[in-house]
Amino acid sequence: MEYISTRGKVSGVGFIDAILMGLADDGGLLVPARLPQLSEATLRQWQELRYQELALEIFSLFIGDEIPRDELKQLVDDSYATFRDEDVTPVRGLRDGLDVLELFHGPTFAFKDVALQFLGNLYRYVAAKTGSTIHILGATSGDTGASAIEGVRGKEGIRICILHPHGKISQVQELQMTTIDDANVLNLAIDGTFDDGQRIIKELFADVDFKHRYHLRAINSINIARILAQTVYYFYAYLQLAKRGQAGPVSFSVPTGNFGDIFAGYLAKRMGLPVDRLLLATNENNILARFVSEGAYQPGEFRGTHSPSMDIQVASNFERYLFYLYGEDAASVAALMEQFKQQGSLSIPADKLAAVQADFSAHAVGNQECLDTIARYHRETGYLLDPHTACGVAAADRIATASPAVALATAHPAKFDESIRLVGIEQAYPPQIADLFERPTHVELSPATADAIADRLKDFFEQKR
Ligand SMILES: *Cc1c(COP(=O)(O)O)cnc(C)c1O
Hints:
The protein is α/β, with parallel strands linked by helices. Helices cover 46% and strands 15% of the residues. The site of pyridoxal-5'-phosphate has 16 residues, from helix 11.
């Protein structure tokens, strides 16, 4: 399988080079040159597969023969052996017509583990195969950092640095990163927002000299491996419902920040999965919801909410969606992104907006609505939603679909106890989380500038082990 850039100046890249490249060298994002197409017959055959077996089938389509099947199988098995649920991502009924897809049974209790356990093992595999060192640089709005660190801590040939916005993530999110004491991990708390972190990362990756000198690698969802790994659970959820006798298409409601998770659902649909509607749920940072209703993509004022992992204004994966919206025409995407860079916003014509609305519906969930949703489901069903999942469930409650809906449960409520307490609910922490409060922390404060971060990275990357 070959990968190409959304901006058209990079093509013919193999899978391993695509994950190593992260951001394409022309500033665009990598996508598969051609999407695999799955028939109904194949989907029927996949119905009995375990999660790991399904992942192996889907990854094989995207990887081709670059990784021998037995080695790929080992990578997949290692990646999902760390999950606490036998089904990896189980589907549970919440109310009539609505199921939740629980994506939080990995080591850090958020859905990011599904992709980052795999990507961590993939990096270890590549480092061992090529005898090279891999330096990972990432920014987190809260959950990616812990997942990425957990995916590579202590692994030979890999160093990782994660930027997080100081004071803008939950206490458990912070502790999950800063209590790690492996020497190959560096936590930098930046004096700014997640968008500042993401911008710094993009700047450092765009500095091709710096990137190549330090073999800089990405773990943010600009990395195509993350998106591909996330397509698997859309298939898995659909097949679980089909197995129960649910005929016909399914809608998915997705708590959205960087547009990575919901984009994976969109790709699954383009690959032939019978997806009816994709419900895009945002919090009060509602740029993407406004895009779906009005066709204008314009970052607004940053808002702190109960769902910090979705406190994002500039969604880096959005460019991948534009590529498909514009019929895989890289010249149009490059022009739109140039417009965005010049004007700080972009808008699409009416026919394109109609195409957006044929696939997506959106709802921006207010802070109070989020808390009310957590309280109501807890009272009526006993199920405790985390604040991100609550946004997806609130959107599914608000937007009627002709098909049954599955809301993606992206995190465990124990990660966001600050918000759960506001609802007046006391929860018991799982032991892995309770344990964090006892451990020493390792973190440095840094100004939110690319220069400051680059200086610190030079030291970290050049240190002798
Ligand atoms: C990252 C994250 C999201 C948003 O996912 P995107 O791929 O950035 O849209 C939603 N919920 C939780 C818990 C997250 O960690």
